[in-house]
Amino acid sequence: MNMPEGSKDVYLSLGVANSPTAEGSAQRETYVAPLIAAQFANGVFIDMNTVGIRLSRQPEVQYGLQVAPTVSRVRVRTERGSERRRKITPEAGAFVRYNVIQGVNVRASLMYGGSIDHRGLRLRLGSTAGMPIAEHHNIGIDMEATYANRSALQADFAVPPGQVEAGVPLYAVRSGLRDVQIGPYWSWQLSTKYTLTTLLRHGRLHGSAAASPRTVRPGAVTALTMLTYQF
Questions:
Q1: Cα 206 to Cα 24, 59, 120, 145, 183, distances in angstroms
Q2: From CA 223, how far away is CA 140, in angstroms rounded?
Q3: Using an 8 Å Cβ cutoff, are 159 and 208 in contact?
Q4: What residue ranges in the chain does DSSP mark as E strands?
Q5: Residue ranges making up the domain that contains 180
Q6: How far apart are CA 9 and CA 46, in angstroms?
Q7: Is residue 3 part of a domain?
Q8: Within 13 Å of residue 108, how many CA atoms lie on the same side as its CB?
C-alpha cells in the first residue's frame, strides 16, 4: 500500500477453468473467461468480481469495505413448467487481512445482502501460505471456510412448499458451516509483464448444504490456469 500518489497497478488475465456447473451439481463445464484486477494509490481496488477500498495504509494489516455479486439458483415458472435459473444479487461488507510473515497471511470477510430476500449473511475465514521454490517460481496452498445464515442458503439448497418436485421432498436449511475449500497453486513469472498461474481447489459442502436433496455431489475439484499481463 506504499504506492506513489496517483499510481496504479492493473492486471489482465485470461483463464481456462473446469468446474461444476453449480455447487453440489454432478455436471461439469469448461470455460474461458477474462479476469481483471487493479489497485490504486487511494486504496480503491478491483479483484475480479469484487470492488472495494482499503482503509489501512499498513502493509502488515489491511482492512476495508467491499461490494460483490452473488449467484443463486432460483426456480421460476415457464410455459413448459419450471426451471432453475441463475439470479445475481449484490452483497456488501468488510474485510481484514493480516500478513503473519512473508508469504503467509490470514483473512476474514463478513458480507450481507447476497440472497433472494437480501438478508443473506456470509462469514469467510481463510489463509494462504506460499514460498519460492526456484527463481521466478512460487508454490503455496490456500484454505477457506464459509459460514452462512439461513437466508444465504435458502435459494440454492432449500426446497420450499411451492418448489416440491417429483422425488424431491420438502427441505428446510439451517445456519452453519456451508463449505470448506483447500488446494495448492503454482505461479511462474515468465517475464516482468507475464505470469502463468495454475491452481487446484477441492471444495466440499457441509451442514444443510451437503444434506440438501438438491445436492448431488457435495465434494468437487476446480482447476484453473490463467495467463496474467501486468500493465
A1: 10, 34, 17, 10, 17
A2: 15
A3: no
A4: 8-20, 28-40, 44-47, 50-54, 61-78, 81-101, 104-112, 121-134, 137-148, 176-189, 194-205, 219-230
A5: 8-230
A6: 10
A7: no
A8: 5
In a domain, 34, yes or no: yes
CATH of the domain at 59: 2.40.160.40
What confidence score (pLDDT) does residue 108 get? Answer: 98
Residue 52 cell numbers, joined? 472495494
Residues in the chain, pLDDT under 70: 1-2, 75-84, 163-167
Region of 176 (left: φ > 0; alpha: ψ -120 to 50; beta: rest) is left
Kindly state whether residue 1 falls inside one of the protein's structural domains: no
| Residue 226 placed within a domain | yes
What grid cell was written down for 192? Answer: 516482468
Q: How confident is the model at residue 165, as a pLDDT?
A: 67
Report how far residue 123's alpha carbon sits from residue 107's, in angstroms, rounded to the nearest whole number. Answer: 11
Burial of 17 (0-12, 13-18, 19+ CB in 10 A): middle
Q: What pTM value is reported for the model?
A: 0.89
Where does residue 51 rank: exposed (0-12), middle (13-18), buried (19+ CB within 10 A)?
middle
Q: How many domains does the chain have?
A: 1
